[in-house]
Amino acid sequence: MSKSKSASGNAIAELYTSLIEKGKPGDLLPFLRLHAHANKAVLRQEIKKAKKYWLSYIELPTGSVVDAFFGTSRWGQRGNEQQQEMVILSAIAVLDKTEIMRWDEAFPYFSRLDEPIVREVVMWAKPTWTNAFLLSQLKKNDWSTLDYFHLRLLEERGLVEYEPELFVLSMTKFPFRFYRENSLLTAYMEKIVNDPLAYQRELPLLFQYETGIQNQNMPMAPNEPFKNGWEKILGSWLDHGRFDRAWFIENCILVQTKEWNGRLRAFFRKRLGDASPTAAELLAAQYPLFACLHAPLNTVVSFAVDLIRKIWNDKNFDFQSFIEFIEPVMMRADCKGAIRHTLTILDKAAQQSSEYRPAVSYLAADVLVVPDLSLQERAVKTLKKTGDPNDVVLTDKLNMYIPQLQGNITEMLGPLLTGSIREMPNLYEEYAAETRSHSMIHDGSRLPEFADWNDLLFHFGKFIQSEDVMHAEMLMDAFVTKRHLFPADALEQLKTYADQLSGLYFNAPYRRMVGGLLIHLIRQEEGFYQPERDHLERSEIGNLAKYLVHQIQEKIVSGSKRSLLCFPTHTPHWIDPSILIDRLIAYDHAGEAVDPVDFAIAISRTRRENIPEAVEKAHRLPRQYQQLMAFVLGTTGEIPAPEKPSIWKKLFGSAKNIDYVPWAVAARTFYPNQEFQEFENTDLKGVVNVVSPFAPEVRIDVRRHETRHAFSKKVDKSTTRRLIATLPKSKWTGKQPLLYSMDIYEHKDSVWGINLSFGTVLFWHSVMPQNDQALASFLLRYCCEYSEGLGEDDLRAFLLIVSDSSFVFTDTIYYVIACCYLYKDSGLRNFAAEVSLLLICERRIDVRQLGEKLARLIFEGYAPLQRFLDVAAVIRDHSALHNGALLTLLETILERFELKEKLPAGFKKLLEMYYDLLTKTGQAPGVSTLQNLTKIPESTSLKPIIKQLQSIPHQ
Amino acid sequence: MNSTDFQYQYAASSTLAREGAGSLLKLAHHSEINEVNNVPCFFWGSLTEPYLTARCWITLAKVVRSSFGLMPVSLRDPIVSVGAEKLRFEGFSSCNGVYVRLDMLPEAVDGEYVASGTTNVDFNEPMIHALNLVQKNERVVLGVGQREVSVATEKAKVIEKKVALPNRWIKGLTNVQVSLARMNQLFALNRVQCIQLFQAVPKGNAKGTYYITFRSGKYSLSTLATPGSVRIGGIQRLRLLEGILPWVQQMHLYESEDRETCAAVADFGKMRLMMAFSPDATRGFSGEGSALESLTQQVSNEWVYGLNYLLKSNETFDPTLVSIENDVDFGTMDSLVAHLSAMGLLGYDVFERQHFYRRLPFKAERILGLNPRLKNAQKLVSNDDIVILENRAGHVEARVKGTGVFHTVLLHGNEAKCTCQWFTSYQGKRGLCKHVLAVQMVLDAG
């Protein structure tokens, strides 16, 4: 029985396959009528197989027909149009709801019901899932459309049940083909306009379901600009009285309170404007308007206030309710326009009726929480007219708002604050950066040792989870120096970590390389693990870990129990010089070769601390290291001159060529700003950052663009500005470990942008922790080129480094910090502000230097000024010291004010912030700043604030 | 994705209709539990603050149809608990990362508590749209269910709402109560401070974690963790509260002891709207296994079902009092509380710092089957996959069989560690892994 069933199943499958192969859609329905009901399970399988075969995009096989048809591109589907149609129609006819939901291809067929073959199959199959399928398709993609009248046909035939959301979505989306066929669109719109069911049943749903009505823009005639079709339909319905005007007005207002797409709400606001509501109609809708005052979107609040301005003076206007509803608006920094208009209304209302005065004064007081000087001045005007000094509610409010008061608002409020004003705290402390040296080599910072095997075992998890370079180094070192902790089943226990590591991808190459090494060691794979150079990571430093990985393996193979020279002795990356000397001596005794990369990193990590102990041991060093280590320890500043190669020495091979690479690394580590002419006579002559310290030149490049709009033919002009930090053109191709020179060159493929990664920035700093100039030059060149760039992760890591107490600042570093202040990513700016708070607190940042860089970037238009103001707002009022630092920063910026093309947007706010700080802290503006402000062109909006600045008396 | 087609069958759609000078909001209800489903009406009465209540419901609806992770958005129906003169509406965002609850205190309504219980209520688009029309001074009558028995028995068309209700939604409802019980209040903001704080919330989807701090006399957001700050991942989720800020009398901010989850309670006097936020926008409460540790200890079913019959919806549940009155040791009581929460029988009011009883409107077996980590741990125990290597005071080391590997489990003092991927990824921040749970089960079994 089952055999015969299977045989018949096979026969049906073959029949279906051959049917599709023939590709005659007309044959499908007779086949389905004959076999579908009895062979549903088989057909389901066959349809899915057919979809995979005929509909999948593949690289087509070679063949004369295919070649002739596709030319050079071979990417396509096996099935022709008819074959694909047959597969999809059979899916519609046979599959159930769960299965069809994954067939997006079936959706367009419901807009093709005017084609007999499609219609007949659908009508015959009578699928029960149409409602759910069509709705999910319409909701899934904005561009999915379903002809509304086809849907109605399905409804009439009982194939679709009436479902409001489905019908309103279908009606509002114009079929896609109308983009090309304008006459069809106008006919379709005409049909909707005159369709009673559309305006009686579907229209109210426009206000209940979020549709894409605002996006239905199409050309109404060839070569005409795009217009919104629904604008015309709704206008026509309105003109012909198809709905109640009052109802329409109320709903256009009410939808503004919904969390809908902003452009959709704007669409309804425009329709309300088209309806030109009369004052009486607006009065009838005053309560919905009040509800709009609480909308999170400020444009909705402004819209409501604009309409209320037209009716507030009417006797039927509920002014008391308005006062209640408007209260939260008065505290919103994003509703300044609406607040100004409201204050005008309130002034007039208080003048007309004294009973409103207390309430009006409370509302005006609330405006004082908005940090905007001119707005606060406007509110004070109202307060002076309406405020009662004996009103406890008002004075309490004002008292609470004192910390928020800008500029001289406290004085302006005068009698209203008398008696309630508290002792103002000291708001100013002069700021000056201090240079302090921090001890990094002490018992408290000693690198922790693994207590036992379990401690070591769970450290693998820490390495996987953390970007901290130290964890990677501790694990590598454990395989060399801590083998005694490994139990017999250690590798068995570690297998889980090898599995975890092999399933992970780390952005930073050093983590990938160390992870690869750990997998190799745990799985005891043969030979040496040799990580490939990471081509995604274009920096040389980023790939440096491969030398360390190799060196560790050398040690394991040779049975060495000595740590790498560069293995930190103190957290997070420091080396005690006396221990480095111990290591060099031990290497020498054991006859273990010193790896140049390892040695160079060790030098750059060595602190000039614990020097006496190191000096005491230094005489035991092998001769070849004695001079160099004396230079590292600072006991000598002499760099040996190269020996002149005499013929005699050349002949007998006794000439000693000094390897100057570690000398150059040591020189740049301990004397970052010094010139070393000694290297002029060596093979390092001309290499960047060796003889002289390198700092890139910085300039702002301006590019102007013109784009012509395809339809309107209008020409749009725009300008882009980028920061160019010039690096040398050629790459250092000599020995690897010339750390400070390796990456400082112009990468040819910079067109793709060369970002490092968060982890690589940390690794770079860990390799060269005492001089970050090279890192800063790289970041300035590749991450700061555009303020809208994608370097926020790298810059965030850099800011993290900057906050380290041992960090040393340079000119280039100040440029990078200034770029962080101006970067588009608000999270990065916020982080920069937080780091600045810390740096100011510890008096480690020179705000004058930072201000100089900021002034240049701001006035040359690198980024909007507002971004800097956001950062400054976080620093302001944090403490008296922070106010002092900010004041110096603002003053430095304003001293360097230069008018390039036009004043940067937000310049007034900058002046207001400066004025606010000056008045709040009792300071006077700098003479040179005041003089510089005279360069500002005559401007009515700036005049008052400049006058205010000039009026501050000098002490 | 593991999902359950939970089928709501409402006798009618919820509607808000204008009647005379006021409006009548009839909430249709449905429960998977028959005895609850057969209750025609739970509450009937008028709202004392109709406009504010409507805004709170709109906010609730906004949460249940929002998604901040990869989950698609769909409007899920909230749950209402009626009893002890309180109405509590609760729900989850589609992504499971935001839990919302509106506690309507006795003063918020004036009416009759006809029955007590917990049920799903239909929240549909037209009804939410109609909530926008509610005005301050109009009379609004609320009915949870149908008042007239005749209406309930009338052969009205059954409104079937087929919703693919994922298990994680129900699981989140149980897990969040454990997180809430471990929270402490850090800040209380007045309305002005609230408005100022929310103005600082970055627009769009801000990356990374933010910290709410109090400095320079105001509340602000920082990207650096400072002592005493409240950590919030997926800061954009805070914007869900924007719609109710104008009426907030005070907003209380809470943070869990492990600094992972936080909650905000907007206090309106007569009502309180609470939102709890998972550690990050991409993490839902359903995946937080904070209750698992307590669930390893078996609690007698008699206790669980005994309490179920003792208490009514929204009634306060005081574990200490119950322990003392019934001579139950505190350790057992902790497990009992965790069991009751995991079964959907306890909610937690973070403002009043107490548990309240409510029985989720889903079958118990559905809820109990929602802890796969616990089930997998039990499987490890029954397969004898655990070897205890060392067991001395305060220190246990064990090997647990994994897929092709062995995992080392270490219990030292209060610390539990495992070498598995779950522990590596979360370092104990999302509850214990199945290996640690299995070791604990073996140790408990003695």
TrEMBL record, chain A:
Residues 703-950 form the DUF7825 domain. Residues 11-337 form the DUF6493 domain. Residues 446-686 form the DUF7824 domain. Pfam families: DUF6493, DUF7824, DUF7825. This is Uncharacterized protein. It comes from Dyadobacter fermentans.
From TrEMBL, chain B:
The keyword Metal-binding applies. Residues 407-444 form the SWIM-type domain. This is SWIM-type domain-containing protein. It comes from the Bacteria. PROSITE patterns: ZF_SWIM. It comes from Dyadobacter fermentans. Keywords: Metal-binding, Zinc, Zinc-finger. The keyword Zinc-finger applies. InterPro entries: Znf_SWIM.
